[in-house]
Protein: TIGR04206 family protein
Amino acid sequence: MRSDPSAEPPAADRPDATGPGRTPFAPRTLLFDGSVAAFVVTGLYALLYAVPLPPFGVPGYLLIVAFDRLESLFPSLVAWVGFDPAFAGFLAALAVVAAIGASWARSRGATAGRSVAAGAAVTVVGVVGGALSLAVFLPFAGGDYAPLLLVSATSVLLLFGGRYLAIGRFGRRPA
Structure:
């Protein structure tokens, strides 16, 4: 005997739901979002070596510069762990931040599956680029504003691209 389909909760309300109906901040959702975000962050870094021309190589370059700034703050930690494992840990930390951001976007109405986590990862790299634009490239521009403009424009594109991937539109959310 089959149950009445109208009495069952919709897929988005079930705790074991997958895809668009993932429960925000659930461990399973965070793990899924973290793995997608790690793939995207690593892919943006690998893009530096695959297509080393601007603007494609800029996100990978931004990740290296951001890690170098952190390395200057914690030189003994990086020397003790080693550069490669420390850099992998840095990329993993960015993926964790992106996974939390993806769950936050889901709690605010984002309904897509993998693209929410991918958008959050792209947005995190855009935020890193924006912070580097203001903290590193702007003070040391010294009359040559081409690197500052390139990094700033790429960061803005990453921010808007991440927003579009995560939410799916640039307008207002429906009421």
Q: What stands out?
A: The chain has six helices and no strands.
